[in-house]
Amino acid sequence: MTSELRSVSYATKLEQLHQQALDIFQGALANCNIASAFDRRLRFNGQILQRLIPGGSGPQTIELNAYKRIFVIAIGKVAGPMLETLLNRMPRRKGLRGICCSNHLPHARNWRFRYFEGGHPLPNYASTLAARATLNLLKKARKDTLVIFLISGGGSAIFDLPLDPTITLEEMITFHETLISCGATITEINTLRKHFSAVKAGRLALAAPEAAKLSILLPDVPLHSLDALASGPTTPDHTTVKDVHNLIEKFSLANKFPAAVRRFFEREDLPESPGTKGRKLFSRLPWAEAMLNPKTGYARTTTSAASLSGEEPAFRDSMYEVLLSSHDLIESARALAEAAGYTTVVDNSCDDWDYAEAARYLMERFDELRKTNKRLCLLSAGEVTVTLPPNHGAGGRNQQFVLSCVEKLAAHPGEVMTVFSAGSDGTDGNTEAAGAAADPTTRARAKAFGFAPERSLAEFDACPLFTSLGDAVYIGPTGHNLRDLRILLSDEE
How far apart are CA 205 and CA 480, in angstroms? Predict the structure, then answer.
């Protein structure tokens, strides 16, 4: 234990450990700077855009003067910061137009762009307006057009339009609400969204088939599932109608969907997504066999988009760049924890697991590691899944995960340890909290405040409990969306 912790009370030690976890989390976010990441991968040299990391899809340089028009489409929770970063570096030129759709509109806006405040976690009317405006803009794209897509997490809800025009906004919202509460993984959820949407699963690329297209990605999904990012608006889809039907059956969704949505998925002529016809070719995206480059920490690709063109020419001139990922977030957290003197272990095994299974696994791993490492930091990135009851309370997957650890923490009275989990975008579920922290005293403190932790857990109502204890994490929108980070800390003598 550090000298600072030796001289203070048990309650203060726990409070300091809570702060240490928060400092690691926020420090890791600060180190994952979008502008710096952009400069490591892309550089404007006059009217030439250089791609600095070799091995990606497409050419290493893009001559902007070869195009009369440049369209920029920014979609997702980080659309504003990504667009601002690009515009601050791009040379001024005529023919620049674009769309920006996010759940938080930037204060500074460019007159060449139309801005829409889409909904999240459920779409809204602006979500559909942005989708229609984007499709209309892309209709104007020709061979003399370069389209730059800036895509970040949250785009599946923030930006959407039903493939079936008879489906109403209310029915679309219910469809999304059903999916996020059914217990499916994000990849499974987005498989259904892809086949539902007129602007997902490569359909934006299809809307500008002759144009050159560069997608700059900030994923909130695993690197091996980048086609699930915002439900893949610019990437060829490798999922099929059969996959959709299997998922509807697996999660008993048919009777939960609105009647119009159910009829849509029951159509015998339900269309496959762009790219599925050539599934043998499209079964691997350019990054599907990606390895993490030990020197740069970034994904390096082994396959070009051109070789995956298959039967869809719209993807032949597509290029892809990954700015940052949860790998960068957790590696930054690892460095900060080690600098603070913790023996640090990374375990991402429970990515996409049910929250309760993830809590059980990580607590058991934590207990085992603590036998030989008293000053320990166990890190875990990715997302856990939840299945929401019809009348659930206020909370999200991070708070639910932490609350699920409370009973196990209570079995270690007097020990200096904490469990922290938060979303890198600064929000968690239907709350303004990013997550929460708990320790061996949380259960007793909650009961003293009149809460029954077991009931809050069963009702998915974790936020009131953690907020009352002062242990909810409120940091506001972060300008990031690199998935969730779980931090388990122990500081014993």
Answer: 25
